[in-house]
Task: structure prediction
Amino acid sequence: MAFEMDAPFNRDELAVQHEMALLLKFWGTQTGAFVEAGANHPVQGSQSYPLAQRGWTGILVEPQQKFHPLLIAQRPEAYIVHAACTATDTGEVLKLHIPAHDGLATLLPNQDEPDVVYDSVETVPTRTLDSIVDEWRRVTRATTPIRFLSLDVEGYELEVLRGFSLQRHLPDLVLIEDKLSDLSKHRHLVSQGYKLVRRTSVNNWYIPRSHRAPSRSLGEILRLYNKVFWGLPFRQMRRRRKAARLAQAKTRT
Result:
């Protein structure tokens, strides 16, 4: 294979391609329905778009207004919802903090990314994923089982999970962004009958405890445990130091 010597090396893009290759291998020729909360762009970086190309349908939830018309135009197979997902259906309207860089809009500023600067704020309606799934089935009369749940909501994943009945929907795979500041997301999923089997980039893979794990080498298993569990105290220490440096920098300005 020939490489362009002057082409920029994009480690993030390579990580996305590797993750998608593993996802497509995991599903093989199977089809079903997906739920992607924090859908962002309809194609770029989308974990459900390659599945849609293989006949999948499902739900895309995105709180940032600018992506809504793009999702409607480019993802006709999906049910599009403009909302932020929360643990309860109270009808509350929340503030979405938006930086210049796409993909980091959040209800919890600096929860996952302490040094991000937010340029603007939008108000966004809130819903539980359970209510969105129920609406999807009622409006579209869909009966396809939900097999894939993808969550990328910049630190709000645990609240989204609390508004989604895992034991009722029982997806075959939960892919959840986890910057691993603690084990709260992991513990919730384990309490709901799921087990951790893989990590790609910043995403953890969980499958039902009764399902067989995908084939992995011993080295991959050890790296997974080192990243998620054994490295946690050191990661927390680094985060505290970084937070202290940022706080000091703010007091000087």
Remarks:
- The first helix runs from residue 11 to 27.
- Residues 40 and 62 are 6 Å apart (CA to CA).
